[in-house]
Structure formats: structure tokens, C-alpha cells
Design brief:
Blueprint (H helix, E strand, L loop, with lengths): L9 H9 L5 E2 L10 H5 L5 H7 L11 H8 L10 E5 H13 L5 E6 L4 H9 L2 E10 L2 E4 L1 H7 L4 E7 L11 H14 L2 E5 L16 H4 L3 E6 L11 E6 L2 H10 L9 H12 L1 H25 L4 E2 L8 E2 L2 E2 L5 H12 L1 E2 L1 E2 L10 E4 L5 H13 L4
Parallel strand pairs: 1-13, 3-4, 3-6, 6-7, 7-8
Antiparallel strand pairs: 2-9, 4-5, 8-9, 10-12, 11-15, 14-15
Bound molecules: pyridoxal-5'-phosphate.
The site of pyridoxal-5'-phosphate has 13 residues, from helix 5.
């Protein structure tokens, strides 16, 4: 038996330390959540049905009702092409395990949510990082790098758009180019699309990768754009039968099936997904407007690299003090949690800012006072 040797998940260990004690969470990647009651209130008669729902094992693939609801988000996938998981994280773990072999070459967009890189490495793949570059007007990916990086043994390309932690969004042209490269070289495309629906300009929203490409696996989840991480409901959508069947069988060794109450609530929430995403985009937009004057006034102190989508950005603070140290004293002195870029293996001046929560402004006021008071 092969045991996967996984390095510590830096970001998750960091959150484990502070998430439930910090007063202001200024770096969350999810949007403002809801109570169970608020979700039930979205449709009349739900409350009774929820209380009467059965707590037996659920269908391993996810209930048909939920998969139908999820399939409604896609142009080319039916319920047969959806597999529900415990959050996006289980789906990432299972995909990497069934799709990759030691010695495969994998290209991963970087920086990234650590499991997207860590798992291929732990499996023994040769990993090439496709690095985002920060330019004056935003983050950029070098498309020529991708064409040049393809090898005979390239098995998969792993992308994440809208992106954690930068808020970068591929253009339609770039998405088409990636798919063209994958198709020409028979490469799987794993597209982490968990922040979809949070594009600041609707025309920038990309089609789901699995709608455009038959060997793409699209990753979706209730946690981010819909603000419901406590449900632990994620999914993959793919038209690749072989990957679908292998992932379904692998799930018997991870969660077997999903939580019945979570499936019920996710089904309701997805019936109203546009309304929920619009509410979350509104919160994001108000919070970004709130910090704009500060960003304009303090360009020399804080380099803002504009995000195009999602509730997070990855700016840098221009000081010699490492962000880890600043983060430690911010939490100790002001109760404000920011995420140092080192959690993504990045330079010490980067940090992740999260603005999808309603109490963002109070946390930002504390943060802003701290940095302009010259405490750094
Ligand atoms: C890009 C990305 N993918 C996957 C995940 C995992 O999501 P979940 O918590 O729903 O498992 C996250 C969580 O932060 C993420 O940012």
C-alpha cells in the first residue's frame, strides 16, 4: 500500500489556530453565511419537509434532486455527470488519487490552494508551476509558458479561475487556448471554479470548463460564492465517464455519501443561487468601495493588485517587516486576522485580504489604523 506523505496544509493550520478566536476575520475566502432558518425561508413549506427528512444513508452520488439542481447550472451536463462530495476538498483529493500516477507530469497554476499542488507532488508526479505574475493593472498568466511546458507525459493541467488568492480571472480567449492545448495533447483539465458567479463584470464570467471540453472536470461548491461552507457540499461535473466512475468508486473509501440535512439545504439554496450570489456580490462591492479611498491615498504603503472576481485579493505591504510578524501583532493587539503570503509559499510582503463578510469594515478600520499609525 502506498501512503501519501502530505506536508502540513499551511493555510488550514493557520486558520485552525485563529479562525474561531479572532475578533475580525479579514482574510476569509468565503462569503457571508446564512442560518438554517434563512435558507428554509427561501421557499414556503420547507421547514416541515426539513424536519421530516430521513437520516438514513444517502445515495452515494448525491440525491437525484440535488444533482438535478446542480446540473441545471451547466449547459452540457446532466445529473449523471455530477458527483457530489463533502466540500470541494474531498473532490480534489479523490480526483488527484484516481487521475494521477507517480511519474505523470502535471501543470498547476500557482500560487494556489495548497491541495491542488500538494496532492500531485505527494503522489509522485512531476509538477510544473504555472506562475501568475503581478503587473501594474492586475495579475497575468503567461500563455506561452503553458504551450512550452507540455511534455509527452503531461497528464493534467490544474487551473483555478476565479482564483484564490489573487482574484485573477482568465479571459475567454485564454480559457479557449488552454482547452485547445489540452484537446490537442489529450490532457485532462481540472478546473477549480468554486468562485464562479462572483465576477465583478458579468461579461467576464467564463463558461464552466466541462461545458466546453469533454475531458475537463469542473469543481463547484456551496462554500464560496454561496456562503454555505458549513454544509460541506461540493461536486464535480464531467463528461469523462472513466474519471466519473473511478471517482465514484474511490468515494467509498472517503465519505461514502453525504449528509442528508446538508443535501436538503443545498438543494433549496441552489434553487435561489442567483439571488444568493447577487447578495454576496453586493457585499463584496460595498466593501471594495469602502477601502478605495485608503488604497488611493496610500499607494506607497500598500500595493493593490486589482482582483476581477471573488471575495479575496492578494496585495502587498511595502515594508521590511515580514507579513507573518505583522499578522502576529495585528491579532494580538487588534484582534484582526490577515493571512500572510507565506501560507502560499509566497514572498513575505504579500497577504490575503477577504472582503465577503458583512463586518469587514470594522476589521478594516482596525487594520488601517494599525498600519498608518506607523506601528510597522
Ligand atoms: C480554490 C479553492 N478550492 C477548494 C477549496 C476547498 O473548499 P471547501 O472548503 O468547500 O472544501 C477552497 C477553500 O478555500 C478554495 O479556495
Amino acid at each position: 500500500m502506498i501512503t501519501l506523505k502530505l506536508n502540513e496544509f499551511r493555510l488550514e493550520r493557520y486558520f485552525a489556530q485563529y479562525e474561531f478566536s479572532a475578533r475580525y476575520l479579514l482574510c476569509c475566502s468565503d462569503c457571508e453565511s446564512f442560518s438554517i432558518q434563512e435558507i428554509l425561508d427561501l421557499d414556503p413549506d420547507n421547514e416541515r419537509a426539513f424536519k421530516e427528512s430521513w437520516l438514513g444513508y444517502t445515495e452515494s452520488k448525491g440525491s437525484l434532486e440535488l444533482r438535478n439542481q446542480i446540473a441545471g447550472l451547466y449547459a452540457m451536463c446532466s445529473a449523471q455527470e455530477i458527483l457530489v462530495h463533502s466540500g470541494a476538498e474531498e473532490a480534489i483529493f479523490n480526483f488527484m488519487n484516481v487521475a494521477l500516477e507517480p511519474g505523470d507530469h502535471v501543470i498547476v497554476q500557482a500560487p494556489c490552494y495548497q491541495s491542488l499542488q500538494e496532492l500531485p507532488e505527494a503522489i509522485g508526479c512531476e509538477v510544473s508551476l504555472w506562475k501568475l505574475r503581478s503587473e501594474a493593472d492586475g495579475w497575468e498568466l503567461d500563455m506561452d509558458f503553458l504551450s512550452g511546458a507540455i511534455k509527452k507525459n503531461t497528464r493534467a493541467i490544474i487551473i483555478n479561475s476565479p482564483h484564490n488568492p489573487t482574484g485573477h480571472l482568465l479571459s475567454h480567449q485564454e480559457q479557449n487556448k488552454i482547452i485547445e492545448i489540452c484537446r490537442a495533447n489529450k490532457i485532462l483539465l481540472f478546473a477549480d471554479e468554486v468562485y464562479r458567479y462572483l465576477e465583478y463584470r458579468e461579461e467576464d464570467r467564463l463558461p464552466w470548463a466541462c461545458d466546453l471540453y469533454e475531458d475537463a472536470v469542473s469543481l463547484g461548491v456551496m462554500s464560496k460564492s454561496f456562503g454555505l461552507p458549513g454544509l460541506r457540499i461540493g461536486w464535480i461535473a464531467t463528461r469523462n465517464r472513466s474519471i466519473m466512475n473511478k471517482m465514484a468508486a474511490f468515494k467509498d473509501y472517503t465519505s461514502i455519501c453525504n449528509s442528508a440535512p446538508s443535501e436538503f439545504l443545498a438543494t433549496i439554496a441552489l434553487r435561489h443561487y442567483q439571488q444568493i450570489a447577487e447578495r454576496n456580490l453586493q457585499i463584496i462591492s460595498e466593501n471594495l468601495d469602502y477601502i478605495k479611498p485608503f488604497l488611493n491615498e496610500h499607494r506607497e504603503l500598500l500595493t493593490w493588485i486589482p482582483p476581477q472576481a471573488g471575495p479575496i485579493a492578494f496585495p502587498r505591504l511595502n515594508t521590511d517587516v515580514a507579513m507573518e510578524e505583522i499578522a502576529r501583532s495585528l491579532i494580538a493587539e487588534r484582534g484582526v486576522l490577515i493571512l500572510p503570503g507565506i501560507c502560499y509559499g509566497m514572498d513575505k510582503s504579500y497577504f490575503r485580504l477577504g472582503f465577503g463578510r458583512r463586518n469587514f469594515k470594522s476589521g478594516w478600520d482596525e487594520f488601517q489604523k494599525y498600519i498608518v499609525d506607523g506601528q510597522i
